[in-house]
């Protein structure tokens, strides 16, 4: 018995108690058993040819008890041995785990059971105790046993075709003997997926006494030996064993009836998604070769309506059945099969049985079985592996199952007749078969017909079937509700990252809600009730999904699925837990509510699972393609940071890049179509994606390729310049700063308001009333100048240079002594200037676009330049405090000097907006990381050489400052050529006062250098300079060169991405620069906290439009997306790869047709030989009759016309 199941493993085997085994399973034996080797001890029936030494059961006379061998009923009665009458049942004495000698890495469960054991108990043993999940397919492989060698192409079919079929179904079960090559051919993944369970007669097992133990064997060590004609060893490639005992010893076929009943029981079981039990488990028997006893097995299964797949050419019984089906079917096609007499049919079958089994004595019985098999030929499918190959095996299996399903459901009408066939096609992932056979237009499919199969297609990642169902009547708007969405998330694999994250939030909710759980993170288990309410509370739901998306997407958008759950974003954690606990303990009415945006929900679900094809299909169906692709890019890149498996991490990054490319391509087509609508698309607030915009999502997703697009940069340039023309020189801005009346002159040029700039004006939060010509010209031009971000930027740059000039003036010229003599007026002005900078940093934290203080502070700290500002402010504060006291005055001045360096380095961020300097700044930042690696290697050599050099020259010098200089500082200077030769080389040392007295040295005297190992000092210096100056320095140069070449190609992309952050920063900042920015801060304080006027810049780069305009915009975007997809699809079809695939398919079709032609040619040759024989026989008859005197012909015999022509 071969089982194909997904989650089977030996470590999952649950060991039931021995009493459970002995109460459920028995074997054929009686109370007066002598030895366990012979179960037939109830009655001894002598075998005629054994001279009384053997029983008809196959056991020896000595193995039977005294009561069994006694003639208690007379010899005339006991003439035919029968298992039902001549054996009794006892509790099983052989069960447990089987360990093959030399194969201790795996234990195979086994059990000895009676041939009359109920199939239900056996099925529960397989699924409950042996941890084999309910299968999607059962393939019972029959034949191939014994000493006959299986043909090579049959092995290929079993190795490749059967494994591929199991791969298609997901979870399958196969029962049979001829599968022993599977373990050597399949990978470890498929070995867990395809579970081989062997069903064998107990009496045929060699060394079966090693398995007998009434208390169970855990494990039973089994020594496999070479099989004999009468007994066979158990095969180590099987993963479980059912040893069927019918009381016989050395007889084949004792398990046949049991296997038929087990197959019938499994075929009546139902499985399906989410425990709905709406799909029957398909069972298929496959015949490989076989002997005459196999025909009984085939006949019994066909009577149970079990379909069969016969491998033509595999030998014996299989060839007989193929011969009967092929030739007799051809003969009956000439007329109605019902009109063919049973005598003719029987005669034809008898002739073919003699041909294949010439030595069998039970001819009539075999003929009856073959006729019975022929009458159920609708359940038989013939597979010729030599012609079709192993690649087509899974399709042939599906056709065999569909053929049987069609016969059994022939009385149904409309689409209901083909539902089971569709379920089989979904299980086997045969979308081409479904399109050609089930969705060709002849069947009218309805929503209710496709609803059951949709869940299977979604969970098992079959996007082609999802697309097929949607195209043929399934409305996703009516299908997906929040209950089904929860079940989809509940079907995630337990070894995925998303499942583990959801389980963490589920545990947190249970801890806060007080709901008991099945287990905790530390592995401890807790007993829980099994009520439906508690079960629903223990399963991941929409809340866990929303928390997952909130953690992945951050505060870019509003939390998902809060509305159906009745939650609000500002609710406390305690209120959320209380509300969820009350909601989940009720009937959960939200689960019956349809999803607001089903395509987007399915798109998120597929993206979280990293399902490429499914996610791309849902992205095609969902609206707002650019924003959706950027959202998927953000989700995948965040998950890739948490993923530990390298292969999964790389696939996530590749899929994220794919979605970024899709967003870039769609946006490119939009920009070519309409510039103004494209700008609106970038900043439109989306209802589907939680109020996010494309720019915000692209920033969060680090979509640098998207930001490098000309359309994004054009919008940023319009926002940057405002109403001022881009050709305006910088010196004109500077003059306007110092002479504001120049704003109203012709020195500055302003643009006229066009359609493309109205969007940018709305984004810059300028009140439309301010742009109206009714406003005074003075106020209108004033706001046009100061509301442009470029004005704010240049003003801040100018004032920052003045700030640095004032700081340098104070440090170099006007740094006064501590109070009461200082500080000076210039220093006080500097303090006030820094205070305004602190006010601006506080404004960025509290009045940013974050929802709370914690998120605002977290977002502020994440920026590296904000860290630089914070460091400079903290150093400045420390310096001010220290300089106020005489004792720390000098230290405070030193801190001021360091702080000035930090403030000066802040200029790098300011110049990042420049197109020439910006990319170079990025390259410098990358090279700084290379310097740290260089310093690590350099530090190792400095430490090694410095300590050795110090110890060799000076044997004793306890002064810490000199140790640091000679160990680190002096070797570092030697890299640049500053070598103290007078200390290193003994021949060039100068005479100076020194001592070797340790007491004097400890008091501060100069120690005398040693000359004993001077030669070693010189050698170490040479090696040190060789490594540092040549090896390490050149390594650093090579690293710089590699970094430069690598970053230079994408430096423009990086710069454009950073340019957005700078533009967004100065767009949200007040117009005035420090120190005058304090005026803007006071104005903001009055408006926000006194007048309660909301800010228009708190959500910068966000534009809200009406529903009608949003619908038009989404339609326009969808049309352009469809055009793009059609162009990409055409390019893919025209590619060389697709052409080769189509050519290969055509060649395969031609080869199959050639194989059919050869078969027809063979038949024609056979028919020609038969005709030639008949012609010769008729000619002989004519000649004989013409030469005899029996008949006097009235006219001469006919001549053969056209003979000469033919010759």
Automatic annotation (TrEMBL):
<keyword id="KW-0472">Membrane</keyword>
<keyword id="KW-0813">Transport</keyword>
<dbReference type="InterPro" id="IPR041491">
    <property type="entry name" value="TRPM_SLOG"/>
</dbReference>
<dbReference type="InterPro" id="IPR050927">
    <property type="entry name" value="TRPM"/>
</dbReference>
<dbReference type="Pfam" id="PF00520">
    <property type="entry name" value="Ion_trans"/>
</dbReference>
<keyword id="KW-0812">Transmembrane</keyword>
<protein>
    <recommendedName>
        <fullName>Transient receptor potential cation channel subfamily M member 4</fullName>
    </recommendedName>
</protein>
<feature type="transmembrane region" description="Helical">
    <location>
        <begin position="868"/>
        <end position="886"/>
    </location>
</feature>
<dbReference type="GO" id="GO:0005886">
    <property type="term" value="C:plasma membrane"/>
</dbReference>
<feature type="domain" description="Ion transport">
    <location>
        <begin position="799"/>
        <end position="1051"/>
    </location>
</feature>
<feature type="transmembrane region" description="Helical">
    <location>
        <begin position="1015"/>
        <end position="1037"/>
    </location>
</feature>
<feature type="transmembrane region" description="Helical">
    <location>
        <begin position="785"/>
        <end position="810"/>
    </location>
</feature>
<feature type="domain" description="TRPM SLOG">
    <location>
        <begin position="109"/>
        <end position="366"/>
    </location>
</feature>
<dbReference type="InterPro" id="IPR002153">
    <property type="entry name" value="TRPC_channel"/>
</dbReference>
<dbReference type="InterPro" id="IPR057366">
    <property type="entry name" value="TRPM-like"/>
</dbReference>
<dbReference type="InterPro" id="IPR005821">
    <property type="entry name" value="Ion_trans_dom"/>
</dbReference>
<feature type="transmembrane region" description="Helical">
    <location>
        <begin position="830"/>
        <end position="847"/>
    </location>
</feature>
<feature type="domain" description="TRPM-like">
    <location>
        <begin position="437"/>
        <end position="709"/>
    </location>
</feature>
<dbReference type="GO" id="GO:0005227">
    <property type="term" value="F:calcium-activated cation channel activity"/>
</dbReference>
<dbReference type="Pfam" id="PF25508">
    <property type="entry name" value="TRPM2"/>
</dbReference>
<dbReference type="GO" id="GO:0099604">
    <property type="term" value="F:ligand-gated calcium channel activity"/>
</dbReference>
<keyword id="KW-0407">Ion channel</keyword>
<feature type="transmembrane region" description="Helical">
    <location>
        <begin position="730"/>
        <end position="750"/>
    </location>
</feature>
<feature type="transmembrane region" description="Helical">
    <location>
        <begin position="932"/>
        <end position="956"/>
    </location>
</feature>
<keyword id="KW-0406">Ion transport</keyword>
<keyword id="KW-1133">Transmembrane helix</keyword>
<dbReference type="Pfam" id="PF18139">
    <property type="entry name" value="LSDAT_euk"/>
</dbReference>
